[in-house]
Amino acid sequence: MGEEDYYLELCERPVQFEKANPVNCVFFDEANKQVFAVRSGGATGVVVKGPDDRNPISFRMDDKGEVKCIKFSLENKILAVQRTSKTVVLPEKRSLKLLKSHNLNVNWYMYCPESAVILLSTTVLENVLQPFHFRAGTMSKLPKFEIELPAAPKSTKPSLSERDIAMATIYGQLYVLFLRHHSRTSNSTGAEVVLYHLPREGACKKMHILKLNRTGKFALNVVDNLVVVHHQDTETSVIFDLKLRGEFDGSVTFHHPVLPARSIQPYQIPIAGPAAVTSQSPVPCKLYSSSWIVFQPDIIISASQGYLWNLQVKLEPIVNLLPDKGRLMDFLLQRKECKMVILSVCSQMLSESDRASLPVIATVFDKLNHEYKKYLDAEQSYAMAVEAGQSRSSPLLKRPVRTQAVLDQSDVYTHVLSAFVEKKEMPHKFVIAVLMEYIRSLNQFQIAVQHYLHELVIKTLVQHNLFYMLHQFLQYHVLSDSKPLACLLLSLESFYPPAHQLSLDMLKRLSTANDEIVEVLLSKHQVLAALRFIRGIGGHDNISARKFLDAAKQTEDNMLFYTIFRFFEQRNQRLRGSPNFTPGEHCEEHVAFFKQIFGDQALMRPTTF
Amino acid sequence: MAAAAAGAGSGAWAAQEKQFPPALLSFFIYNPRFGPREGEEENKILFYHPNEVEKNEKIRNVGLCEAIVQFTRTFSPSKPAKSLHTQKNRQFFNEPEENFWMVMVVRNPIIEKQSKDGKPIIEYQEEELLDKVYSSVLQQCYSMYKLFNGTFLKAMEDGGVKLLKERLEKFFHRYLQTLHLQSCDLLDIFGGISFFPLDKMTYLKIQSFINRMEESLNIVKYTAFLYNDQLIWSGLEQDDMRILYKYLTTSLFPRHIEPELAGRDSPIRAEMPGNLQHYGRFLTGPLNLNDPDAKCRFPKIFVNTDDTYEELHLIVYKVTTIFPSHPTLDFCRRLDSIVGPQLTVLASDICEQFNINKRMSGSEKEPQFKFIYFNHMNLAEKSTVHMRKTPSVSLTSVHPDLMKILGDINSDFTRVDEDEEIIVKAMSDYWVVGKKSDRRELYVILNQKNANLIEVNEEVKKLCATQFNNIFFLD
């Protein structure tokens, strides 16, 4: 197993606290994610550390007996200490008010701070769970539901243990996770995690089953919307992704681990103590230790070593563990820090050594553009709503968040395609096929293709003298019209004469490039054609006579010059009642030239009425 | 703009008149270097049709051509003579490879009249044939030969004069029978390609399909994609595609269309179990893929002869056409399984587009005009004058005299480089308009009672605005 194989790791900067021992008790508060180290019942000090706290809170309190539980309220305002099973002490005097009461026989409870939902275990088998939701000072009762317990031998009484239940938010939805142990009577091949979806409204429903295919002791975490299942016996973990396609049997979806089981990456404990002693090599940390306690969503605490870690997923190793590129993309696109990894996957699949087949490349592009399009659509409907003035009336209107999964054309161009087309060893057929596949995918999702992608196609085709191919692409408007593209085509005329026609056609279709068309025609000495064009679109009253006369003179075709000159004399006559040019038109030189060639009498006479 | 009135149109023909269309008199290929000395003249002749002609006459005719070409060369060293007009016939000369000459002699059309005493009088119509049309036909003969046989020079290198003579004999013996000189017209000059109009997305899907197929079947060098008689994509270079297109649309496809129309050719694998049902099949190559003894012989073609000189096989799989280097039966099966199902899906996409196109054009009333459009740059050709191409005739819907005017206008266009417009008043109420703008040519035939020049000009402007609004076409 190589170094690069581990896809789970403990965070680099754990919360460190005094190890648990007979005089130091350690508590963890899931709501504030704080660790309390209580020395001698608080008499010699209480140290509170949270994951983001750079400055721990320390205080002392009187030792009034064994502390069973200790917590701060939100924002560390009120401290509560529980010393017996039925009393909670607030060190300062406060009054408490009973807001609401429900009568239930409760075996145990579980609270999920993220969703503010409490689960109460009821009934003899402990397996009927009653959820309550706290919101804005009220407490609402949600429909209760029953967890199906595995069949057990008749001698033992089955019951639902608190240890086998967890609550977590996955992809924005609250789930109750039940670790269902392998039972010999059933024909299942191992333990399973059963996910019950707990919606805000409506009944709880069994939705997913994660197949673990092994037995023994397990622990659950949820990291980056992935369910991580740790297995103590093998000291490995597996991950599940609810969004990856599983097997649906009509009511429940069965999932298998996304990747082969791997250990969490080995972790070195830095040596504490004065700097002089730290030259000693760090001590490897015992992973999957029986003293580990796991909290939701991603917390692992080793009380005996005095560490609190957040569990993290490493994406780079996964690239090589998941050979199916389509599935890999589905997986990566759901992860928070996915952008650079996805781009590297794209580069890799286009590399000489790891080249993927075109259908695979197409699938990857389609998946990228699907996400990209979703974001563009959300942006657009937001912009439209803002324009319509709905932003004030609807508080639900939120600017869509651009996640890392949104990879736009410029990302793909900059990080993948521009380097790819430069690779000399790549067969050009493949290069063009890839570029066309990306453009095909963008079009399929109705995303307007940026001109730099079209330019890349043109550049590649030109480099390999594939002008006829280029011509056909333009003929079918696969490369969309734009002024930059038309200019690029013009510059290709010396290598491929038809590029001139293609460019003019494009300018014509743009319908905003009439000046450019005139310039192109004049530069080709097609003065008459330029004039006919501008007259055709009704712009001939506003053009510079001097520009056309200059161009006509350059052709050294006297008859052409005559024609153009006469045209402008007639224009002058029509617009100003006199065929003469005004000084502002700077045509003196041309008038002189006209006289020299054709004589004074050839000048048009002002019409008199 | 130039206007001219042509006195074309001869009204009703006298009942006793008989007409004979132009016909091929002889066709020969020679190389003057092969028999420079007296007494060895026969060696110059590489091919002569009709073969029955007596040896000395062959030698005389070849010698005459040689002399004419030599003689006229003194007047125009760079552009040797292209044709010789005589009362009874016209000779066309073409030197496709250095010192290799091809000559085609066409008899002028004849009108046979009955004189008062009942004796037939034969009248040769010396001015009817258009040089450009038949020069193009002659050039096409060479291109077609080259497509299936490679260059003359290559045959010489491979097996000397003997091999070249064999190849010429084998090819032209059959090919000359398919020349239908009476129905050659402007379209033979253009040698254009009709493109199938298609939306961008379907086009990209086809691109993607072709790229994938070429990747998985790596002996496929090039692919051309057609729908019916219209080209959608060519991986081949333009000149090679041009002649292949001619072959496919005027020879191969028509030969296969008739059995299909008769319903004799239902898809062979509909009853095959375990196979995705699709409607692909080979037009060249094996008929039945399940027959292990099926012959896998595909026609050879030669492309890029000026450059890399590639010898390929032509596989025509309906609707795609591809060019692999060495196909086997196993390859055919793979091609069938990869291409067939996908192609069937694509074909239905394209078919949909076809129906849209048809609906759009069908929604308008039968227009008052007919036109031929040709773009020299991409060889795109569009004709509402021609009804359909068959191996035997190209049917036109207009009077031959009008077609001749089109040819005349085209000849005028060839003489100058600049953009031009020519309007001709023809017989009865016909007007013929030719426009040339930046390597594009448009010919319109209008039939409007009592129309004047200005109205005709307006009509053509309208036509350009509706049919050609997305290209830069000066009006």
UniProtKB/TrEMBL annotation, chain A:
The organism's place on the tree of life at top rank: Eukaryota
Every Regulator of MON1-CCZ1 complex N-terminal domain range: 26-91
Lineage: Eukaryota, Metazoa, Chordata, Craniata, Vertebrata
A Pfam family of this chain: RMC1_N
Record-annotated membrane-spanning stretches: none
InterPro entries hit by this protein: RMC1, RMC1_C, RMC1_N
PANTHER family reported in the protein's UniProt record: COLON CANCER-ASSOCIATED PROTEIN MIC1 (PTHR12897), REGULATOR OF MON1-CCZ1 COMPLEX (PTHR12897:SF4)
Gene: RMC1
GO cellular-component term (any): lysosomal membrane
GO process terms (BP): regulation of autophagy
Name of the protein in question: Regulator of MON1-CCZ1
Domain Mic1: 335-583
TrEMBL record, chain B:
GO CC term (a single one): Mon1-Ccz1 complex
GO biological process, one term: vesicle-mediated transport
Record domain CCZ1/INTU/HPS4 third Longin: where: 365-463
Domain CCZ1/INTU second Longin: 220-319
Transmembrane segments: none
Start and end residues of each CCZ1/INTU/HSP4 first Longin domain: 25-150
Family, per entry: Belongs to the CCZ1 family.
Xref: PANTHER family: VACUOLAR FUSION PROTEIN CCZ1 HOMOLOG-RELATED
Protein name in UniProt: CCZ1/INTU/HSP4 first Longin domain-containing protein
